[in-house]
Specification:
The complex is a heterodimer of chains A (85) and B (515). With 85 residues, chain A is mainly alpha-helical. The relative contact order of chain A is 0.23. Chain A has 3 helices and no strands. Chain A has one domain (7-84). Chain B has 2 domains: 5-46 and 129-201 and 330-505, no CATH class; 222-328, no CATH class. In chain B, strands 1, 2, 3, 4, 5, 6, 7, 8 and 9 form a 9-stranded antiparallel beta sheet that branches. In chain B, helix 12 packs antiparallel against helix 13. The radius of gyration of chain B is 26 Å and the shape is globular. Chain A binds chain B through residues 1-3, 5, 13, 22, 25-27, 29-30, 35-41, 43-45, 47-49, 51-53, 55-56, 59-60, 82, 85, and chain B through 6-7, 9-14, 145-146, 149-150, 153-154, 157, 199-200, 203-204, 207, 211-212, 214-216, 218-220, 226-227, 229-232, 314-317, 319-320, 512, 514.
Chain lengths: 85, 515
């Protein structure tokens, strides 16, 4: 394959990005002004597509640093939301 | 709309690596998924005494169930179950829970005698569908389901701007790489909705273990009552500690039938049996709807405590129940289940085609050790699974009916055949030849199974008089032909073919873009 992915970006795609997606899938329903059953529904239906999208975006990132930085930022915001709610 | 060359390459690599690393588990899931669909219908096949019609009227079976529940109440189990005779299983079945697992026991509804252990072939194949009997297997299957969502997503992105052309592009006379590429794409696109439903629902079943508790903690403040309301599934009343008798089962059944007359009720599941606050739960099965199940809970004193119509009463239950219905095919009639099974086999073949495409691409560039191991694993794991299934059906026929721990012996035969199939791939030097032999072996065994059954039961093959048995016989023979056809196709594909040029593979793509 002509394209060289780099270990850093692959590591972000396999660990950081899906981890951040899981945290985001917990955080977003937690702040949505909807009933509890809708929150649960959104969380369980969204988490796998979100994780798959996150993997793709990390691999498509311009650099490993950017892939990790975005993953860390999403994870940090999600964690803050989860701590505050 | 088309992806840029860079995005295409990256997503192609992601699709290929994720596919190769999850392919074997996904193959098992889809191949055995076809059998899991018929777990109940296989009962009369796996246990010939089940081929008789229900020998007692419902009232007599309920009276026996009442006696069994009354005697079980003394031990005050937290959970206990009884199923009434059905067309597939005309005996009474008791479900006891111990050591965190459910252990079934059979009772003759005519004599009221306890019977020995019987084959659980259908249930075992259902459990192997998500690798439950293998330590860590459920998590592996759940993870593979999550990866399947990624595979469907990346696969569809890779097809942007190409889908219509490649959907109708199949060149069986071309080089093997082209053949597997076309096969993988055509099957992948056609079965994408099916794969996505199974990836998401299979993944969600896995999420129940670890993600759902996290959602309850973060979105419901960890309150189990809020979760119970959200999923429309309240917890049963806690035990009081005061001993009491079992609920009146005839009265509970009458209440369930009155509440849901269109449902079939054949189960009694007890919470805190033998306690003053013990209850009986009667699930009902309704045909012709994606929301297949109704539920009724009746107190020990005969009061209707809770009922749940098909689909439940919340948005969550109304969305998730049909999704599970789609996964488990609870809504499906026999023809629809056969279609599901065919789609399962086609999906398994599509997954296999992806691996073979990978191997053909890498063969052109000199295979690595990883590729050689992958080729042997693909051969032994996939063809070995077919042999293991055939061996299980043979074991089910030839093991003595009264053999102690009979189900365990059948499981051992299945796992041993599969293990030997995998190990043999590393002894035989040629993976395709080895796969061909295993497939032919499995095919022969599957054809023999109905003959053995006919000889054992003193009848002609395909003339048992039971629709369940006939359907199983036809299914086994059809699978045998399918496997023999696969073996023949492998032989044909091993013949020398023209080397694919990039222009043959992808007439309008740049040379650097993989296909």
């Amino acid at each position: 394959m002509a394209h060289q992915h780099g270990a850093g970006r692959i590591a972000a795609a396999v660990t950081g990005a899906p981890g951040a997606a899981v945290l985001a899938s917990l955080a977003v329903p937690a702040v949505l002004p909807v009933p509890a059953d809708v929150r649960l529904l959104i969380a369980v239906l969204a988490v796998l597509p979100a994780a798959a999208t996150a993997v793709c975006l990390a691999l498509l990132a311009r650099s490993a640093v950017r892939a990790w930085a975005v993953s860390a930022a999403v994870a940090a915001v999600a964690t803050v939301v989860l701590v505050l709610t | 709309m088309k992806l840029s060359a860079r995005a295409y390459e990256i997503l192609w690599d992601a699709h290929a690596w994720a596919g190769v690393l999850s392919s074997l588990v996904l193959f098992v899931t889809f191949f055995l998924g076809a059998f899991a669909l018929f777990a109940e219908e296989l009962s009369p096949w796996q246990e010939p005494t089940f081929r008789a019609p229900i020998a007692v009227p419902e009232a007599q079976a309920v009276a026996l169930a009442q006696r069994l529940a009354d005697s079980e109440a003394a031990s005050r189990p937290v959970w206990f179950g009884i199923s009434l005779p059905t067309a597939e299983e005309p005996w009474l079945r008791l479900w006891r829970m111990s050591d965190g697992a459910i252990h079934p026991l059979w009772w003759d509804p005519v004599t009221g005698r306890q019977l020995g252990e019987r084959s659980d072939l259908g249930e075992f194949l259902n459990a192997m569908h998500f690798l439950e009997p293998i330590p860590g297997g459920q998590h592996l299957t759940g993870l593979a389901s999550a990866v399947l969502v990624l595979l469907v997503g990346t696969g569809l992105l890779l097809q942007l701007g190409r889908m219509m052309r490649e959907l109708v592009q199949f060149r069986p006379g071309s080089a093997r790489r082209v053949f597997w590429s076309d096969t993988h794409k055509v099957i992948g696109v056609i079965s994408a909705p099916f794969l996505l439903v199974f990836g998401i629902t299979g993944g969600i079943l896995w999420l129940d273990d670890w993600f759902e508790p996290a959602v309850v903690k973060t979105s419901m403040k960890g309150d189990p009552q809020v979760k119970a309301l959200a999923v429309d599934w309240p917890a049963p009343p806690a035990a009081s500690g005061k001993p009491a008798g079992a609920p009146d089962l005839a009265q509970a059944l009458a209440l369930a039938k009155q509440r849901f007359p269109a449902s079939e009720h054949s189960w009694f599941f007890f919470d805190n049996l033998g306690d003053e606050r013990g209850i009986v739960h009667l699930p009902g099965e309704r045909a012709g709807t994606l929301h297949a199940f109704t539920h009724v809970r009746v107190s020990r004193t005969g009061a209707l405590l809770w009922s749940r119509d098909t689909g439940g009463g919340t948005l969550y239950s109304r969305v998730m129940d049909p999704l599970y219905g789609l996964h488990f095919a609870t809504w499906a009639s026999l023809p629809a289940k056969v279609l599901y099974a065919l789609l399962s086999f086609v999906s398994a073949f599509g997954i296999l085609a992806g691996n073979l495409l990978w191997l053909e691409r890498r063969r052109a560039k000199a295979s690595s050790r990883f590729d050689r191991v992958l080729a042997k694993l693909t051969s032994g794991f996939c063809a070995g699974l077919a042999l293991a299934v055939a061996s299980l059906f043979i074991a089910n026929q030839v093991l003595p009916a009264e053999l102690s721990a009979r189900p365990s012996w059948e499981h051992a035969v299945f796992l041993a055949a599969w293990g030997l199939g995998i190990a043999g791939a590393f002894v035989d030097g040629e993976p395709s030849r080895y796969a061909r032999r295993l497939l032919l072996g499995a095919s022969v065994l599957l054809v023999v199974v109905p003959l053995i059954d006919a000889a054992r039961t003193g009848r002609l093959p395909f003339a048992s008089g039971s629709s369940h048995v006939l359907a199983t016989e036809l299914g086994l023979v059809a699978l045998a032909f399918l496997l023999a056809g696969a073996a023949r196709a492998i032989r044909r594909l091993q013949r020398p073919t023209p080397v694919a040029s990039s222009s043959t593979v992808e007439p309008d793509a740049s040379a650097s873009v993989p296909t």
